[in-house]
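Reading group handout, session on sequence-to-structure problems. Before we discuss, look at one worked example. The prompt was deliberately terse, the way you'd type it at a terminal:

> structure HpcE protein

The input record follows.
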Amino acid sequence: MRLINLAGRAALDQGGTAVDIEEASAGRFSAAFQDLLERWDEFRDWAATLGDADGRPFEEAELAAPVGTPRQIFAIGLNYRGHAEETGIDIPDTPMVFTKFASSITGPYDDVVMPPGSVDWEAELVAVIGRRAEGVAVERAWEHVAGLTVGQDLSERDLQVKPPAPQQFSLAKSHPGFAPLGPALVTPDEFANPDDLEISCAIDDQQVQQARTGDLIFTVPFLVSYLSGILPLLPGDLIFTGTPSGIGFALNPPRYLRDGERLSTYVEGIGTMRNRMTAAKARG
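And the output record:
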């Protein structure tokens, strides 16, 4: 099942046409993504009976982030061996966890206004929780994941390393637009192997990142189990699972995003986001 957010309304993508869920369910489910995630088991049972409902064609520009209103957004650092090595940091024994704030979420084809500083790219696979998880075993973790989507953990590196704290991850990664998500939320059963998907990133036509999520140090099931052993994961929560090697900060010399560049982010079986980067206008 492929879920999309079509101009603020939850819809099913059936072969390139959009089926409005509120209309197709005769009001049983609302148009809000969070409603579906809060009632995920009930929604999945209903969707399985829908069949080939008539939909309407849609344009990429109509798509918004295919998520609800997450109460918690987790992000995992250094979760690909190559990324840990390029930053010169030891491979962690346990997940390195930080947060992003929900106000940073934007759509898969929206422009992103860059603040002053050094804005870097980080292509990521993002897991969306669909069933409350507390103390979940790794073997049962996929049962709590509604689906997977494509994400960017955009980062302003100057603020990230600014004193007095050694790292300011959460603020530096939470400017408006710093969490593009989309173009669809795809349920795990749609993948031959949801633990091993191609992931890549390009700036204009130059590829800068390419890997497979099978290279993750801590897998999606492990992360769901680990996090749910510390605090409850709630429907709609997001887990940014980490980025592979190829970030701008690690290049010699470092290379950051520039005004007018198009950032394309791809995950196999989900699709490609394309976000145009624009420089913030000077005040005054």
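Points for discussion. First: The longest helix spans residues 40-48. Second: The two ends are 49 Å apart (CA to CA).
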